[in-house]
Amino acid sequence: MTSALMANYGHPELQFARGQGVYLYTADGERYVDFTMGIAVNCLGHCHPHLIAALKRQADTLWHTSNLFSNVPTETLAKRLVELTFADRVFFANSGTEAVECGFKMMRRYHYHHGRKQRVRIISLTQSFHGRTLAPVAACLNPLHTEGFLVGDAGFDQVPFGDLDALRAAISDSTAGIILEPVQGEGGIRAVSVEYLQAVRQICDEHGILLMFDEVQSGIGRTGYLFAHEALGVAPDLLASAKGLGGGFPIGACLSREHVAEVMTAGTHGSTFGGNPLATSVANAVLDVLTEPGFLTQVNQRADQLRAGIDALSEQYPGILAGHTGLGLMVGLRCAGSNADLLKAMATHKLLAVKAGGNSVRLLPPLNISAAEVDESLALLASACADLASL
Ligand SMILES: *Cc1c(COP(=O)(O)O)cnc(C)c1O
C-alpha cells in the first residue's frame, strides 16, 4: 500500500481502527495494550465516556467562533487552570509547540515592555524537546530536527542538563529567560533535582530573567501531580501545557503569572483556533476527572505497582532491564540491551510503548489504568524480556 502522506514519520506498519480504555484494536480485532497513549495525550485512555459526552454536547451547541467573541467553556477552563495552579492568566493554542512559542514571545516582550530591548536570548538544556516549529527547534538544537532548517542561532543558547555553573556562565545582559522540562520526556524521562530547580529559580530572580517550564508531557496528572513542578516545589513564571490537557483533542495552553501576562496587550498575539469551544469543553471534562478526590492518589498507587514490577523484572533480567526513571506514570524503562530490541519484543507480545533518549523506553499508561491492567502489562513485559533472554 503506498501512502500519499509525507515520509517524515517513516512508514508506520500498525494501523488501528478503534480504542477502548488501555486497549487499541486493529480492523481485524487484534488487541494491543497501549502504553504510548498518543504520546501522553490520551491521559484517560481511549474513548472515555465523560470526554465523549462533553464533546458530543458541545458539537450540538457551538463549534467555533474565533477570538472575536468569548465563549463559556473557554472562560471556564482558563479560570479553572488559574485556580489550580501558580498562574494568573492563560492563552490557549492548539498544540505544545504553539504553547512554547507563546512563552518565548512573552519572555522577549516582557523585557521589551520594561525597556530592556537587548534581553532577547533564551537558554535551554541539552536533550530537551520543546516542539517542531522554528523557535522550539532552535531552542533544542537536536541535529535531527535542525539540519537544513535554522538561520543562525535564532536567539537561543544551550547549557548541559543539570549543570548550574554552565547555566550561570551562559547568562548575559541579553538573556531574557530560561526554559526547561521539569521531567524531560523525549530526552529519556529524566527529572531535574529539587536542588537544581531551586537554584535555577534563584538565579532567575537574581538576574531578573524569566523561568518557563515546559510541562507539555509531564503535566496534567502524568507524574501524580497536576503539574510535575508541584512535586519539586518550585513555581515558574510561565508554563506550556498541551498533550494530556485535551485527553486526545488538540489543545495547548500557555499559563503565566500576572507580571508577565500584563505585557500581552490587545493585538500582540493570537490564534484562530486557540480557545475553540470543542477543545476547551473536552479539556474541562479532563479536569473534572483529574480533580475528583483521590484520583491523583490512585495514579501514584498504580505508579508504585508498575515500578515495583519493573524492579522485579530488572533483577530477573539484568541483561535486558536496568530499572526505571521519571515520576508517577511518566515511566522511563532503562534498557541494559538495546531499547529498539526491547520495543520490538514488547510489540510482539502486543504491548506498545515509545522510544526515548538515554537508551530507554517510555511507558505512558492511561492515568486511570486499573491494578489488574498494570499486572497484565507487566506479564507482557516479562514475556518480552524472556524472549530477549532466550536469544
Ligand atoms: C510533545 C512535546 C512538545 C510539542 O508538542 P506538540 O503538540 O507536538 O507541538 C513540546 N514539549 C514537550 C515537552 C513535549 O513532550
UniProtKB/TrEMBL annotation:
GO terms for molecular function: identical protein binding; pyridoxal phosphate binding; transaminase activity. InterPro entries: AcOrn/SuccOrn_fam, Aminotrans_3, Aminotrans_3_PPA_site, Class-III_PLP-dep_AT, PyrdxlP-dep_Trfase, PyrdxlP-dep_Trfase_major, PyrdxlP-dep_Trfase_small. Keywords: Aminotransferase, Pyridoxal phosphate, Transferase. GO terms for biological process: L-arginine biosynthetic process. Its cofactor is pyridoxal 5'-phosphate. It comes from the Bacteria. The keyword DNA-binding does not apply. PROSITE patterns: AA_TRANSFER_CLASS_3 (PS00600). Belongs to the class-III pyridoxal-phosphate-dependent aminotransferase family. This is Acetylornithine transaminase. It comes from Pseudohongiella acticola.
